[in-house]
Amino acid sequence: VQLQASGGGLVQPGGSLRLSCAASGRTFSNYAVGWFRQAPGKEREFVAAHRSRDGTNTYHADSVKGRFTISRDRAQKTVYLQMNSLKPEDTAVYYCAIGQGVVTSRIRSPDAYDYWGRGTQVTVSS
């Protein structure tokens, strides 16, 4: 499985970006796609996830709830992260990942994901 994240860039506070994560290779029937981010000197943290088994079940970190939205285009095998009202503290490298059979209790854990794409840099600054 190959994952390609894109859409990062430099944006002013209050602005928006949409990240894309395109998947290629084998497919899974029960999987979760997650977005994580890592700022310099900090651990990788959960941002949002979409789990296929639950249909439209999505999960968002409290820090981004109401501002970020994860969505999926199944036909295009692409997952999006719409980011609105961006803040300087959102600055980080953003990664997408896929995990097989991820249960609810672990959906926020990076260790639950098997495949990772290269990150895309998001910088929020005036």
Number of strands: 11
Strand content: over 45%
Low-confidence runs (pLDDT<50, min 5 residues)? none
Radius of gyration: 14 Å
Fraction of helical residues: under 10%
Please, what is the average pLDDT? Answer: 92
Major sheet description: 7 strands, mixed
What structural class do you assign from the helix and strand content?
Answer: mainly beta
Question: Helix count?
Answer: 0
| Broad shape | globular
Straight-line distance between termini? 37 Å
Order of helices and strands: EEEEEEEEEEE
Written overview of the protein:
This protein has strands at residues 2-6, 9-11, 17-24, 31-38, 45-51, 58-60, 68-73, 78-83, 92-100, 115-116, 120-124. It has 126 residues and is mainly beta. The strands form two sheets. Strands 2, 4, 5, 6, 9, 10 and 11 form a seven-stranded mixed sheet that branches. Strands 1-3-8-7 form a four-stranded antiparallel sheet, with no helix packed on it. Strand 7 and strand 8 form a beta hairpin. The radius of gyration is 14 Å and the shape is globular. The model has no long low-confidence stretch (mean pLDDT 92).
Quick structural summary:
The chain is 0% helix and 49% strand. With 126 residues, the chain is mostly beta strands. It is globular, with a radius of gyration of 14 Å.
